[in-house]
Amino acid sequence: MNKIETLCLLCSQPLQPVISWKMLLTNYFQPTICDKCSARFEHSPTATALYQYNEAMKDYLHQYKFLQDVALAKVFRQELYARFKNEKATIIPISMHPIKQKERTFSHMEELLKAANIPFIQLLEKTTTETQSSKNRVERVQTAPLFRLMVGAHVEHKQYLLFDDIKTTGTTLRHASEILLHAGARNVQSFTLING
User: PANTHER family given for it (predicted)?
Assistant: First the structure.
């Protein structure tokens, strides 16, 4: 019988398969990157993000989002599962404009949550194809509303948690939060993969 070799999704080095009772009896995911690649990501000191932005994260985002490597959604699934598994708030990933999603072929925020088996709903629709990363700090702060409620969306009077890939000025999260609060949400918090 041939053994299937699993490779690190970032550097293509062979991964040593780990079979344990913990993996078999819990929601423990098989690692998708090697320890060397994992060590390149810097954990965030804040409670509202998993990681800090650095060169390793810049490379990861480029490959995942812009080179459309959807397999990389699995890289942080264990950490995201651990963070969200007991979350009481309804999770809403920050949405992409439909044109951008068609270009990229997948919603990078939704794929991160799917890879970690985290339930979510979508209530927001992006109103512009402009990216915040193409703007300077002043332009980001002064930007027009980025979102609207989806047609037929119903915002309940309860707590929601917005999930985005990176927070720099917080403009995207602020705009999304304002739409939800105005529509009747009791409380809106946010969490990001990366603190910029």
Answer: DNA UTILIZATION PROTEIN YHGH
